[in-house]
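Hi P.,

Sorry for the delay on this. The queue was packed all week, but I finally got your sequence through. Input first:
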Amino acid sequence: MTIEKFEDLVAWQKARVLTSKIYAATRIGQFAKDFGLIDQIRRAAVSIGSNIAEGFERGNNKEFVTFLGVAKGSAGEVRSQLYTAYDVGYLSDAKITELVGLSKDVSKLINGLILSLRKSTVGGMRSNRT
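Then the structure:
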């Protein structure tokens, strides 16, 4: 199966959902007043999908893997910041569970892409892209 565009990648789709949920969570209650944490967590969330997209649009799998690594790191950053938000009382038990779970799902999907690209032949799954 050849992926034609980054929008077809499940990792990017889930990253998009995560980003939307992060934006929603940061608009509520005391969280909405913590401008420093809001800025950090939103930037990290946006970075996940942006790096998946940018890496995909590069010309080769090696560069794509590099950008996927950055995206995976940003997913970890989001998770860490979610724990901070939870620890200071900005997120409920249910919300932290939901968002951390989604972040872990995104990380796993990105990791799967990385492993697949590393195992692929030269050009890999993106070699037929125009």
